Each structure stands twice: as structure tokens, then as C-alpha cells.
């Protein structure tokens, strides 16, 4: 029994050590992010439109957003919109989109190339983007 306890303690210590080595790499405190850009048919087309590309799972489908502007709205956040994108860049999808059915549907139904503005609460632990505003066909992107 003491060997099992020692092994469990070793695993816990190794996990804590690894977490300390990479503090908050993928952690993002909950904050409000505003993204502007245009959807593309695939990642390659999105990269042709912008160097910043975000993959989103919306329902059962995926969309690629060529981002032209990323900002954090939360006044207490030390992260910029760019920092948020950098932190989720290695993960796929970058965001799991949630929110009211009408907001999600407006993103699902948006044609590729049409300007998109979206705003929502990002939960960094789950990479959930909870939509609070979506505008399709705006001219600012």
C-alpha cells in the first residue's frame, strides 16, 4: 500500500512541476473578445486573406475566420486580442461557439467573404466562446 501511495504522490508532484514550468500557457481568464473578419471555405483560403485565422466549431460544423481585428473588451484583462489568438492557435478548434440559437445560426449561415463582427465571453479553460453579439455584412471588416 505504501508503494501505491508513493507512486501516486510521484505522479501528483510531476504534474504540479509540469504545470509550474508552463504557467497559464493555455489558460485564459474569462474575458470578452471582439473579433472582426471574414469567413473562408478552408484554412488555406483564410490564410490568404489574413495572417490571423481562427477555427470555430459551431454546432456540428467548422468555420474558418480570417481575422482582421481582435480586441479584448474586458477592462480588467491584461491580455490583448492578439495574445488570446496566440494562446489558442495551437489548438483545434480554437473556439467552441455557444450562445443563443439565432446568434449561432447567423454565423453558420454567413456566406464566405462577407464581413463578420462577433463579440463574446471566452472561457479559456474550455475554449468556449459564448456569443453576445453577431453582425453579418457590416462594413468595418
Entry summary:
By secondary structure, this protein is α/β, with parallel strands linked by helices. Helices cover 31% and strands 36% of the residues. A hairpin with a 4-residue loop joins strand 5 (115-123) and strand 6.
Notes on the protein architecture:
There is one protein chain. The protein has 141 residues and is of the alpha/beta class. It has one domain (31-136). 31% of the residues lie in helices and 36% in strands. It contains four helices and six strands, in the order αβαββαβαββ. The chain has helices at 2-21, 43-49, 81-88, 101-109; strands at 31-40, 52-58, 61-72, 95-98, 115-123, 128-136. Strands 1-3-2-4-6-5 form a six-stranded mixed β-barrel. A hairpin with a 4-residue loop joins β5 (115-123) and β6 (128-136). The chain is globular.
Q: Major sheet: order of its strands?
A: 1-3-2-4-6-5
Portion in strands = 35-45%
- The whole-number mean of residue pLDDT values reads 81
Uncertain segments are: 4-26
Q: Total number of helical segments?
A: 4
Please trace the helix and strand order, writing H or E for each element. Answer: HEHEEHEHEE
Shape: globular
Q: What is the domain total for the residues?
A: 1
Kindly name the structural category.
Answer: alpha/beta
- Count the E strands: 6
Work out the radius of gyration: 18 Å
Distance between the termini: 62 Å
Could you list some keywords that capture this structure?
141 residues; alpha/beta; 31% helix
Topology:
Blueprint: H1 2-21, E1 31-40, H2 43-49, E2 52-58, E3 61-72, H3 81-88, E4 95-98, H4 101-109, E5 115-123, E6 128-136
Parallel strand pairs: 2-4, 4-6
Antiparallel strand pairs: 1-3, 1-5, 2-3, 5-6
